[in-house]
Amino acid sequence: MLDAGRAPAYLHGLIVFFDHADEDLRYIVPETPRIVLDPDPRLSLLLYRSGEGGSGGLLQLESSLAPTETQLEAVERDLASAGRTPTLARPDWRSGTVRVVGWLDEGGLTPIALAVGPPSLVGDPLVVLAAHLDQAGAALADRALRDESLPTALIFELETIGLSGPLGIEVEADLQAVHDRLTAEGALTTPYGRARLAKTWEALERENLIRVKVVDEGGDVESRRAEAMRRVGEDLIASMFSPFPPPEKPAALGDEAVAAIELSFKLTMRREEVSRTSRWAFHERRAVPVKHYAAASLVGLLGGKSPADRIHQVDLEPETREIVVRLEPELARLGILSVEVDLTRDTGDDIEQTVLLTDEIPEQRIVLVARNDETLMHRVRARFDPLVTRGEDRESGWVGALGNLVVVSARRLFPPRSFTVIAGRVEFDWLDSVEVIVAAPEELERTLVLDASTRSADLFLPAAGAGPLNVTTHWRGLPGEPTHSDPPRLVDDDLLVLDSPFGDSIRVLAVPLPLSDTLSIVVELRYADEGYSHKKTLTWEGGDRAPKRAGLRRLVGSPRSYEYRVVLLRQNGILDEGPWISTEEVTLAVGAQEAVRVHETELVVLGGGPAGRGSLAVEALLEAGTHQVRQLLEGEADHARLVLVAPEEAPAPALVVREFMMTGAIEETLWESPESLVVLPPPIPAEDP
Predict the structure, then answer these.
(1) Cα dist from 360 to 85, 329, 384, 620, whole Å
(2) pLDDT of 524-559, one tens digit each?
(3) Prior bond to 166 cis, omega within 30?
């Protein structure tokens, strides 16, 4: 999709936009329109005088917003010189309008619109205009073509959809400091409403207890920053507060009024249960309309050719007229087999002529007995392709045809519908795909599939109309992961952004302790809430005691408590099944006979491991009293995860890192009560004596 978050380039009269995902794809848009040559310019001004003394004109032109071959070759050459062979494409225009405007000199410049029409949006935008001008408009067009002192301009106004951003926002909160501040304000005993809580988060941000960092700007930064703080506030409310009813019954307001009853919130989590810090990251894009304007004067459209050859003067006496009925050739794309055009001088009379138009025969010429100043009426019938849609044939109303040209646009008369689905907040690390089933009246049921490589999809509905679409979404998990289906819902918009119904996962770390007389250890995990359930199983065989992780998936707004049990297979063949235990702990010490704590620290060695730092090895030791666990990094290994199980009364853990240098020296670094992530910086090089 067109990237609206990056400034386009201007090359050889073309505006070059970037694609949001493919660096080798560029969208090109000309800066100025061009007149269609066949081989002469398709622009003419017909000035007429009638027998009753009236006068006016008919302005006809055909213009396109298309690049020339020279421009395309020059742009490809410039982009290829940067080391990439580009693919040049056109934006998918959603809507557009073309106007011919000028200025009358009547004691001051007065703007006037001479012609307005919709362009064809297939490929390069193309417009065919036939405007009936009154006496002032005809004089203005005549003067504008002969003399540029009062220019008359042709203006294209087009709109497409682009992706703004990316906007990256990272939030970090000191939860214990937040807890201390809320406690000091009396949050343990005083009810808090949502409005009061929102002000509290803003105050904590100003005091740097909640830190917000914009890592990548694009689009409306302030509103997205406020949205990020709203989500963080909801997460903090869910984790640290509990809802309570009002302290007393509200006062009655009469028979026809009802007192408002709102839940309050109390701080119910103890400080010891709060982690030191918590982090959130929001990296999002947003679909926005992108408008493009291109303009050129009528004289400029002629490209130096004599305007006198394009101006004709006629009278309105001829009795016959040759009518050209022209079709925009896109019926197959619209799911239409053909169109029939009826022409008559009066809708009350019999139809005088009917012509059949298809993509293969887009133009028909007929001769009617009618004066040039007589308005013809025409209507159009569309014959839909039954293999594409179940929509019935449609017929437009009667419309006046100006001049001798009748332009039929099936897209405008029988508008189709384009429906776009975008995956918003979706965790494709464990979700395999999202199936979106779209149903509309008189349309075949369609299925769109989104995954990690295809996060958006478009659906073309030839005869869906403007009514709501029935959308059903199925969230398909990878093997071993849950699947969930949303109930059908009605969607009125043509753009749907899907957010996952799953909340953040419960990530459990299980650490098995040495157990004698045990052949295997199995930990069964299960989560259930109001009809939704998810299970995981962790297994250790023989002497394997490596810590393992499992993620239990849950729906948004559901509790974080789950159940687990331990199953031991003894060497004597006895299967020892433990009871199911409900908990919210995210670390499990399997086989512990007393109260223990699980300490986990991740060590990252910068510089490419010991080999990149010029040392032999790096030893990491995590200890709490007499209990310790160690890991040795050699070569290019630069990552160690240390998990230590220690009695609850054991002292706070300490991390000792020893680096064995090539010189024989040993550099030791100590962290008291280390964080969950510790980084060992590169050694400072010794200065030359």
Answers:
(1) 35, 8, 16, 76
(2) 999 999 889 999 999 999 888 889 999 999 998 899
(3) yes
The Cα–Cα gap between 331 and 416 comes to 11
Interhelix angle 221-240/175-184, rounded to 10 degrees, is: 70
Confirm if 371 and 416 have CB atoms less than 8 A apart: no
Q: Identify residue 388 by its one-letter amino acid code.
A: V
Q: Which of 228, 169, 168, 235 is nearest to 503 (CA)?
A: 235
Q: Which two tokens stand for residue 98?
A: 């073309």
Q: Using CA atoms, how far apart are residues 579 and 609, in angstroms rounded to an integer?
A: 44
User: Which of 17-21, 119-123, 350-354, 484-488 is predicted most confidently?
Assistant: 484-488
Residues whose CB falls within 8 Å of the CB of residue 448, separated by 6 or more in sequence, listed in order: 421, 435, 436, 438, 457, 459
What sign does the CA torsion over 574, 575, 579, 582 have? Answer: positive
Other C-beta atoms lying within 10 Å of the C-beta of residue 507: 11
Nearest to 62, CA basis, from 43, 46, 84: 43
The whole model's pTM is what?
A: 0.45
The residue type found at 491 is V
In 330-411 the beta strands, taken as DSSP E runs, fall at 336-344, 353-357, 363-369, 376-384, 394-395, 399-401, 405-408
DSSP character at residue 24: T
CB 451 within 8 A of CB 432: yes
3-state helix, strand, coil in the chain (%, to 5): 15, 50, 40
Q: Are the C-beta atoms of residues 401 and 370 closer than 8 Å to each other?
A: no
Q: Averaged over 316-322, what is the pLDDT?
A: 68
When the pLDDT of each residue in the chain is averaged and rounded to a whole number, the result is 83
How far apart (Å, rounded) are the C-alpha atoms in residues 294 and 552?
Answer: 55
